[in-house]
Amino acid sequence: MKILVAVDPSEHSRxxxxxxxxxxxxxxxxxxxxxxxxxxxxxxLTPSDGPSSWDRVISQARGKLFTEAKGFLQHIKKExxxxxxxxxxxxxxxxxxxxxxxxxxxxxxxxxxxxGTRGLSNIKRFLLGSTSDWxxxxxxxxxxxxxxxxxxxxMGKSAAKILLATDGSSSALNTVGMLGLLTCKTPPKxxxxxxxxxxxxxxxxxxxxxxxxxxxLAEQLLxxxxxxxxxxxxxxxxxxxxxxxxxxxxxTKGDPAEEIVKIAERSKAKLIMVGSxxxxxxxxxxxGGIVRKIARYxxxxxxxTRPVRSEKEG
Length: 314
Fold this sequence. Notes:
Order of helices and strands: EHEHEHEHEHEHEHHEHEEEHEH
Strand content: 15-25%
Largest sheet: 10 strands, mixed
Number of strands: 12
Helix content: 40-55%
CATH topology: Rossmann fold
CATH class: Alpha Beta
């Protein structure tokens, strides 16, 4: 498994790194530490010999940033190697963080990107960082947004609470596969949830056929969706049980993103897992609005799972 971790000196980035160290990843895993330099973070530049010296001053500032970044990543790499036998590689790049991370995902055929993101209040939570949003939307692999002290939860004596949201598609089974890789000190307690939503096309049908006929059809479709949801929850929960984890199921109806966030808040979940397609016809599938809404408003960490590389190519 190839894991790319975005690293910088911020507190939420350090928490992402702690999470990486808290999980027993597969033995053959390769971990890529990436730090993206932006010249705007350099100290104020002052040419000593007039405008003609700007190139030299900028070059010196860039060199200093690269040297500091390499030393920073080397320190983190040493911490990881001391505790594990994974292959760890460091990447220091310059440019827009989102663009450089996505290019690295492509170049190194990454399976999972891990990003630290700020834990915000309910009012400000929708202000998901532009880099996190960009990577989650366009990365062809799984993406984990780490909020709060996820590493302590994974290593705690009590069972971590994980919410696995499923929409009835094959993507949910990919999510169960990723769940199996998250080895906790104490097996987590997993809540599998499915939200039954009313098909959007019914609104147009309502205006064409009338209220009575619309109500009858809507009830029939919702009942069918409910039955399918029950069956799917049972299938997914059985797969989770085979991982040796305790499982609850929640079937509800309404707006999928809003309901999933509400369930996460009520259950005090520390991680929401939700699946998305990776590729169709060799092209990446755009991230849906439901997943983006969950990522923005979730009170905890969010793991978006996409098929692993071998499945994408197959």
